[in-house]
Specification:
The chain is mostly helical. The longest helix is centred in the middle third of the chain and has 30 residues. It is built from four helices and no strands. Helix 2 runs antiparallel to helix 3 and helix 2 runs parallel beside helix 4. The radius of gyration is 16 Å and the shape is elongated.
Length: 130
Amino acid sequence: MPIPPLPALVTLVAMVGFLATVMLVGAARVKHGVKPPSVVGPEPFERALRVQQNTLEQLMVFLPCFWLAVAFSSEPVATALGFVWVGGRVAFAVGYLQAAEKRAAGFAISFTSSIVLLVMALVGVLARLG
């Protein structure tokens, strides 16, 4: 089965987003003088680190659920939810980098997208098992 291009694009955009969080942490380390392996520093550094860590944690749920929903449920719906997930992660990062209290909406958007993808994948797989 060939890999569909739009879901592949979602995956690539999600990876670019994650790499952006990695670069934000590196820039925050330099700006605030936080030497590796330390993970403690001024609050702006710690918020940048939490954005990266939380995004990695969420990717571990999102990617398998996304691709299983693409394969076993609805590629167009899963793809749309994938783009929504990416948008939620951007909103999460932008909000969290400003203040911890501003992260909730972006988190809710991406987390809800992951849950819907999980349900889609589960229902699709169970339907195929018959």
